Amino acid sequence: MRALVIAAILLALCRCAFCAGAEEKEPMKWYSADIRARLDLACRYLEGMLDRDRDLEPFFSIHRDPDTKTAFARHAVSIGIPHVTGRALEALFQTEMLTGEKMPAEAEKAYTKYLYSCMENEDFMPYFIDTDDSDKPKVECHNLREALFGLTRLVQNRNDAHARALADGMLLTLEKMNGESGMFSYEKIKAMGREGVFLGISDTMQTTTSGRLVGALAAYYRVTKNPLALKLAAGYAKGVMGHSFTDDGRLTDDASNHIHSITSSLSGILDYAYMAGDEKTADKVLKVYKNGLREFMSSYGWVKEQAWLETDQGESNQVGDVIQILLLAAENRDPAYYADAEKFMRSALLPQQVIDNSFVKENSAPENDSEKDMHKRILGGFGFATPRAHLQQEWSAINTIDITEGAVQAICEFARHIITRDDLGIRVNLLFDWENEYARAESALPAKGRLKIIPKVGDALLVRIPENIKPGSFKIYGPEGERKWTPVKNYALAECKKGEEISVYFTPLMTEKGEFIYHKHYGVRCYGEQCVWVSGEGGVYPLFGEFEPEE
């Protein structure tokens, strides 16, 4: 009997040891391109940013105390509830649609409740309570885009009639605000009795308000076919492209100083332009990308937060916007744009996610939920990275909900483009791990230039030939050995059969160059399409860590 008891105890200990080992995962590397793991971490961040001391009201941002090195969360007013709730639903629903995994009920209920709370008014607009002005209700029109995105996904994914009514009401209010040009009119708003209530309005500078709305309006039109959404999008797109950018794609004063407003306007307007068959507008958007935006970007995809200010603080939001511009251009204009989309995702957006919390200490005596578990709750979020570090200063915000939401949206859109199919065959556009109804791809990048592809349908296979590789090193192998392929623009076209294993080999090159990133000189080292090092000093918690390519 004693022997049986001892054996049982030993077996239990072995099981505990096994379970503990199973739970221990290798820390995520800074260059990890595991899309699903990245999304899971970001969604956990969004789900964890609910204040349990304030009825699950969403926090806005997490900061680090420069003295204690502990972290704490903050709420926001004008860009708090009206800004982050709809955008959180957009991000969580996008992830749900992509992965098939339903978001936690608590997060969905909380974000939906607070979105409804700011929209349930006679204007159907996202109001906030201005605590600096006798608690008067006001609308910051910068938040309109975020609210409409959230309502759109509630309609699309939950068939939510209340969200549909709120969104349709919002569109009717927007129509009342517009002048003959199709843009917001200060005189119209004044005639509505909303002067001093609807904020951020100008007759010409509308990149930060109506321009940002175009992408959300296009999304709402796709889901509901409400013709007013398309009408409004057309007027805002025409007005902003006319006032904010020159014919050769330069920024005017009306473009504003807020780069995310510029990039979110451009990505939304490009989406609308392709949907409406407006090639002229699409051409101008791409001119702005090539001529106006590049002044504020690095070669590997980092983008400044504010134009024309001598600062090296960036923002993940606009990196995501630029990637979405590239995806739209690749799909509708030239697949060559996928090369920069991959480079920017690998080198700028993914490294900006907080996956290591060693630079933050746990608060041993938290006063409330804003200080509890912040050491863990910062993980997965995105924020204001410099060209080489996560934080510009010790006191910089570590991350925010809205920026994380923008990053998630971009990652989801990116994933939908990894493997596609058209008249020529199955296309592997982006060299990441992914699986859909067309094929499964397993990538060894960035450490090694190898990709395994297993087609799920019988068709030709097109694999994008990556940039910055050794000439002549790109080869395709089937079960029989090396397989011939034909160049089709920047793709390799080869025959394949359903279920067979196709292996793609190439040799990435390690290159280094100097570049000016908005008036500052940096050295930039890349291995293939992956930036692995950026020179310079300053900043907290470097973006780029150790990297050793595999032979």
Tell me about this structure.
This protein has 551 residues and is an alpha+beta fold. The chain has 15 helices and 24 strands. The protein has helices at 2-23, 35-48, 81-99, 105-119, 144-158, 161-177, 186-191, 207-224, 227-244, 259-276, 279-293, 316-332, 338-349, 374-377, 401-418, and strands at 50-51, 57-58, 61-64, 71-74, 127-130, 136-140, 198-199, 389-391, 397-400, 419-422, 425-428, 434-435, 439-443, 450-455, 461-464, 475-478, 481-483, 486-488, 491-494, 502-505, 510-517, 520-527, 530-534, 540-542. Strands 12-13-14-20-16-17 form a six-stranded antiparallel sheet, with no helix packed on it. The radius of gyration is 24 Å and the shape is globular. It starts with a helix and ends in a 9-residue tail after the last strand.
Shape: globular
Question: How would a crystallographer describe the biggest sheet?
Answer: 6 strands, antiparallel
Structural class: alpha+beta
What's the alpha carbon Rg, rounded to whole Å?
24 Å
**What are the low-pLDDT stretches, counting only 5+ consecutive residues below 50?**
1-24
- The order of strands across the largest sheet is 12-13-14-20-16-17
Distance between the termini: 57 Å
Q: Look at the structure and give the mean pLDDT.
A: 93
Strand content: 15-25%
Helix content: 40-55%
Number-wise, the strands total 24
Q: What is the helix tally?
A: 15
